[in-house]
Amino acid sequence: MRTKLETKNKTLRRKRRVTFKIRKNTTKPVIYVFRSNKYIYAQIVDSDGKTLLGVSSKNVDLKSVDLNDKELPGTGKIGVSFATGFILAQKAKQLNITEVVFNRGGYKYHGRVKALAEGARKGGLKF
Q: Do β-strands 30-35 and 101-103 pair in parallel, antiparallel, or remain unpaired?
């Protein structure tokens, strides 16, 4: 069984690895993801470090999201994460942002983080 220290070290190693790869490509805006136990947050930051826009799953209403005949992958946290990514992409389109880099931080590309990325892709963003 893993201890808390081992889990934290693995998360930090993943975060460093992902961030190092992203620093090479500094011309495109970056999507940063933060996942808490209850919500998921995403924001787009340009190469200067200025936040262009941010979206939180706190304010997402699944009934008001028009996915253009695309189904949500469930109605729980994963469905809300997908809708959050889709809304992020729609708002980014309004700011003429089409290509971004996805920074998942220390989180595994699985579950809610993956659903957010897929929602952003369905919304029209290219990673």
A: parallel
Q: State the CATH architecture for 4-123.
A: 2-Layer Sandwich (3.30)
C-alpha closest to that of 119 among 45, 58, 37, 74:
74
pLDDT in tens, 3-32: 888 888 888 888 888 888 787 767 899 999
Tokens of 13: 């190693």
Q: What is the C-alpha separation between 11 and 26, in angstroms, rounded?
A: 23
Half-sphere exposure in the Cβ direction for 123 (13 Å, CA): 29
What does the pLDDT look like over 80-112, one tens digit per residue? 999 999 999 999 999 999 999 999 888 889 999
Tens-place pLDDT, residues 24-75: 767 899 999 999 999 999 999 998 889 999 999 998 876 666 666 566 666 7
Domain borders along the chain are 4-123
Q: Read off the tokens for 77.
A: 């946290």
- Say how far apart CA 72 and CA 70 lie, in whole Å: 7
**Alpha carbon distance 107, 119 (integer Å):** 17
